[in-house]
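User: Teach me something about this protein's shape.
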Amino acid sequence: QVQLVESGGGLVQPGASLRLSCALSGLAFSAYTMGWFRRAPGKEREFVARISRDGANTYYGDSVKGRFTISRNNAKNTVSLQMNMLQPADTAVYYCAVGSTLEGKMATWSNPNFYGSWGQGTQVTVSS
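Assistant: First, the predicted structure itself:
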C-alpha cells in the first residue's frame, strides 16, 4: 500500500521560512519523479515543484520560483520543500505526490493528472 505523509507545516509570519517533508512508503521511491502541489481556500490546485528521479533536475511554478527549493533523499525515501520568503499568498494546504517512472514531457510535469498517489496534506499559513 502506497503511503505519503507530509509534515512541517505551520503558522509563520511573512518573510519567514518553512521546510516541508514527505515520507513515502510502499513504492520504490527512487524510481519515481515527485511533486509538490498546493490548494488555497477557494482556489484550484496549483503546481509548486517537481523533481526528477535522481534529484538532478527540478522544475518550479512561476509563483514560487527563486523562493522554494525541492530536494529528495532517495536513501531515506523522502522529498522536501524548502520555502523561503513566505508570503500570505503562499497560504494553502501543501500536498506531495508521486509522479512517473519516466521523465516524460515538460508539459506534463505541472499537470496533477500525471501524478498518482497523494499525501493527506499539511497546512501552511502565512500571516502577521
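Now, about its shape. Strands lie at 3-7, 10-12, 18-25, 34-39, 46-51, 58-60, 68-73, 78-83, 92-98, 122-126. Residues 106-109 form the longest helix (4 residues). If you'd like, I can walk through any region in more detail.
User: That's plenty for now, thanks!
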